[in-house]
Amino acid sequence: MKISAVIITYNEEERLEGALKSVVDLADEIIVVDSYSNDNTLKIAKNYTKRVFQRKWTNFADQKNFANSQASNSWILSLDADERVSPELSEEILQLKEREEPDCSCFSIPRRTFYLGKWIRHSGWYPDRKLRLFRKDDARWEGEYVHESLIVEGKINNLKCTLHHFTYRNIADHLDRISRFSELGAQKLYTQKKKSHLYHLVISPFFRFVKSYFLRLGFLDGFPGIVISVLSGYAVFVRYAKLKEIWKKGERIGPFPY
User: Fold this and answer.
1) Is pLDDT at 253 greater than 70 in this prediction?
2) How are strands ordered across the β-sheet holding 3-9?
């Protein structure tokens, strides 16, 4: 079982090195596909691997599929620059490599997020399982806008140890990400001919907050749990408000920057 660690990047000089360090002793090769960063991302990547490519940004799924196509090994460990393979997960995967070839096409990995100075254990953010270790020939990323999905042909097994996620630097970063992703989400809904109604603007955001804070035990995460739950509802509101705006202006969907 030989593994290619694959990471796509754009202006990730602050976070990339941590991701690379977490796989340097685990992966048999590391592949970085960069979307013409204008910071030190490329320099950092080249300190860890010669397999660095630059490619104009298209979308998340297409970029990741291109990166996967550059892998020379049959198994791929797909990481984002803000993720880290924990020491425990690294050991679990290394043990897999010492055994016979796995009898599955993919492994699901629980992901734990560090947010506002705390590891989040509730709020709908954990265990947040992700399909990140998979056979190259049995899986493909799909999704034209945001929240790309890995489509797997074959059996999926679970790993126990966690992938660490350092997603938002602060609340301002969280809000900025909501703004960008809600734009993409609204565009996707528009192409599907979906409409925004009062229910989406008032009721859905409220129930999203209730689900995160009460049903998913967000109150046990303290102050971060309150922020996560409120902004979870806010994200729903903004997405549908922008969808309403698109319909009112009769905007056309065109190419959008990364």
Assistant:
1) no
2) 52-54, 29-34, 3-9, 75-79, 130-135, 106-109, 156-158
